[in-house]
Amino acid sequence: GVGKTTLIKKIHYELRQSGKFDQLIRVEAPRQVDAAFLRESIGKYLGLPNPESLGAADICSRLGGKSFVLLLDNLWQELKLADLGLSDGGLGAKRKIVFTTRLKSVCDNMEAHPVKVNVLKPQKARELFKSVTQEHIFDASPFVEDVVSECGGLPLA
Where is the NB-ARC domain (predicted)? Predict the structure, then answer.
């Protein structure tokens, strides 16, 4: 893709370094939204006992009064925050939810503020390709432009 997961990991790292939040949680969302699975994943991240049996109230209680960022990667469907113990009314300046999705409808349905991640321009794609290859390979290969073109501006592994 365009690097949504890499972006979430970078955000996680930067926020962890900043120390500005009491809790920082990063979770990979399943293809089919499953609130119980997400609560369990959040519970594990928070170090809660018996995370497989947590309810929304348990998460709400644990995060109550704390500043936090929940990073949800690869969301395919609308998610009801209340099902996770995070009601809209509880979110404020020090309580944020960031998610990645490839579907604009998910952003629309969740009333999110979308930030579009675009593909790389050809020059930036060449620079990225050069940065991850050995210079003599980059300079000597007649196929560099073909590879950059084939990737279509996506930072493919």
Answer: 1-133
151 and 1 in contact (C-beta within 8 Å)?
A: no
CB 65 within 8 A of CB 22: no
Q: In angstroms, rounded to a whole number, what is the distance separating the alpha carbons of residues 98 and 120?
A: 22
pLDDT at position 157 is: 47
- Structure letter (DSSP) for residue 30: P
* Complete edge-to-edge strand list for the sheet that includes strand 95-99: 23-28, 68-73, 95-99
Of 99, 100, 96, the C-alpha closest to 21 is 96
pTM: 0.76
**What residues does each domain of the chain span?**
4-109, 122-151
